[in-house]
Amino acid sequence: MKPRRIAKPPAPETDILPTRLKPTFPIREGLRGYLKAYKRERDLPVTYERLLGFTEVIPLCDADGKPTLWDTVIYDGAEMRSLNEALKEVYALLRVDGDMSVVQHLYADRVDLCTFGNSTPFRIRIVNAYNDNQDYFYVKKADASRVYGLELEHLLSPNRLNFLTHDSTLIEEHIPGIPGDIFIQRWLNRPEVSPIRVAKELVKFNERCFVRLLGDMRAYNFVFVLTPDFEDMQLRVRAMDFDQQSYNGLKNFYRPQFFKENAPLVHYCSKQLRPETAKQYLREEQTLLLHRAELAAGRLGRILTEMEHDPIAPPDKVHQLRESLAEHYGRPEYKLCESMGALVRQNLESIRRHVGRPALSELRP
């Protein structure tokens, strides 16, 4: 019997670092028009700036009493009463298209602030007064690159995303799941989790990030979603942080397999997959990406056009990345690209040619 060949794990790199203070890019007129057309831009009663008017800060600890990266913020009584109604209205817009009649029994239980990272988000906990069921949403400073990341996730991944914008404010729904770093610590070797399914989903996730240029997918920036099935546990990996969409010039910044924080997952996958199986899963995800692109061709073509005309990355980073992608895919067309949006478009064209599918005419500039 021939010895089993396994996929050789790449060596995680130690110098792939995100830009510590990535600039916040304003939402320009073209992108704003796109957001209005698809009901992402709405009038909101709460802005990021309004939430900055808190009067006290209390450190937030986890269930074990350990400090977290979040602080609970306190507002004066009159403002909190007003905020409670306004935050319910935002939640209604996010969940039920603004129907306030079905959210009167909800209340804003807590407002938390995280000062770690670029977006310094507020997290709102919404509670059902009848059954104590909880949900969350986030209020952040609007950043064009983050908005492009959210929209590309909605169109090109198996996950749908709800988010809203209003001037310089961004509202995001909560993405439930087990954070990758916690999954590594507590779940990776549990018997109820199929090693092959973990490896398969990580291969697919790695390819999705690379094609749509979503960067900095370290373990704490994505989650594992587990769903019990009749024979085994189903699993999906999905991004939950879109701050580093199409900004860095390093090719491997967009490949989760190369971050040292993900090394346990990389080595875990290499023990489970033969090279032929890894290639199969890669091709499956490329085919699914093209299916999704075809289904949303008009909308995807429009967002890529806006992205092409939006300076969300310096020219030197675009030129650095296009050289690497031209070599990776063996296509000199990349060297004509002058924007990150053009590079995403070329990535889709590269896998289309690789898979042998007909041209996506609506994605052409």
Tell me what you see in this structure:
The chain is of the alpha+beta class and 365 residues long. The chain has 2 domains: 29-141, no CATH class; 178-363, no CATH class. Helices cover 40% and strands 17% of the residues. It contains 11 helices and 10 strands. The chain has helices at residues 29-37, 48-51, 77-96, 144-156, 180-186, 195-212, 263-272, 275-295, 297-308, 315-329, 340-355; strands at residues 56-61, 67-74, 106-114, 122-128, 134-141, 163-166, 169-173, 178-179, 222-228, 233-239. The strands form 2 sheets. Strands 1-2-3-4-5-7-6 form a 7-stranded antiparallel β-sheet. A 3-stranded antiparallel β-sheet has the order 8-9-10. β3 (106-114) and β4 (122-128) form a beta hairpin. α4 (144-156) runs antiparallel to α9 (297-308), α6 (195-212) crosses α8 (275-295) and α9 crosses α11. The radius of gyration is 21 Å and the shape is globular. Residues 1-6 have low confidence and may be disordered.
Gist of the model:
This protein is α+β, with helices and mostly antiparallel strands and 365 residues long. 40% of the residues lie in helices and 17% in strands.
Name a few traits of the molecule:
alpha+beta; 2 domains; 7-stranded antiparallel beta sheet; 10 strands; 40% helix; disordered N terminus
- Strand and helix order: HHEEHEEEHEEEHHEEHHHHH
**Largest sheet: spatial strand order:** 1-2-3-4-5-7-6
What is the strand tally? 10
Radius of gyration, in Å, reads: 21 Å
Strand percentage, roughly? Answer: 15-25%
Looking at the chains present, what oligomeric state does this protein adopt? Answer: single chain
Kindly report how far apart the N and C termini lie: 53 Å
Biggest pleated sheet: 7 strands, antiparallel
- Going by helix content, strand content and strand pairing, the class is alpha+beta
Binned, the helix content reads 25-40%
- Individual helix count: 11
- Counted up, domains total 2
**Average predicted confidence as pLDDT:** 91
Shape: globular
Q: Which stretches of 5+ consecutive residues score pLDDT under 50?
A: 1-6
